[in-house]
Amino acid sequence: MIFASALIALQTIGFALASPLQPRAVAYYPPASGGGSMLDNAGDGFGEPLNVIISGLSDPTVLTDAGFLNFARATGLSTECLGLHLGAPQSANLGDGHGPVNQTTELRQDFGDVLLGTCLESLVGGNHLRVFRQNGPTANSGALFLAVSSEQDVEQSHNIIPNGYDIGRDDFVTSATAAGLSYNNVKYSVKSETVSGLLQPGSSGINHGISIDGNVILLTVHTA
């Protein structure tokens, strides 16, 4: 009897480990509904807009750390130069019950070289994003909230270019929705939707005082 119970337990564990990731039920939960914000915390009371959301209805593998990195590399972004990061991470409260949580990762434009290209971005500037995952106990969508921007070169301390939040967002979305998008033998199909009302237009509370149009782009990403 004990042996049979142990065997059933082992079979259950094996099934759980072998089971694929399960799709989520919603695209995202508005952070403000749970006391959160669509601005991250960049310090001094200001924040960067979370201007792109990777929908929780995307393929589950895309929403993992490794899966999103592969997708980001397809769009021309990769991990930081030699794995080094200068400066403190930013945090965001996505209204999911976790409170403020530091960014999951930070990616930079790689100029076609996933190994060393981001070193060039660190010197000359380019597109850049921070990733925050909505997975808390009260709003577990699994969606990825991205703070995307286009920044200046190292001599300008990587400050955001004029209109850099909207420009960075639009450049990323253009790359993400390009026909034939693929990386590492994974092909992507991406649906884009513009969402209004999550961010307020203007520069109030925005880091560097840069005005935004208030639009958030929702991307639903599927693999082929």
Descriptive overview:
- By secondary structure, this protein is α+β, with helices and mostly antiparallel strands.
- The protein has one domain.
- 22% of the residues lie in helices and 23% in strands.
- The longest helix is centred in the N-terminal third of the chain and has 17 residues, at 2-18.
- The protein starts with a helix and ends with a strand.
What is the element string, with H for helices and E for strands? HEHEEEEHEEHEEE
User: If you average the pLDDT, what whole number results?
Assistant: 89
Biggest sheet strand order reads 2-5-6-7-1-10-9-8
> How does the helix and strand content classify structurally?
alpha+beta
Key features of this structure:
single chain; 224 residues; alpha+beta; 8-stranded mixed beta sheet; two-stranded antiparallel ribbon; disordered N terminus
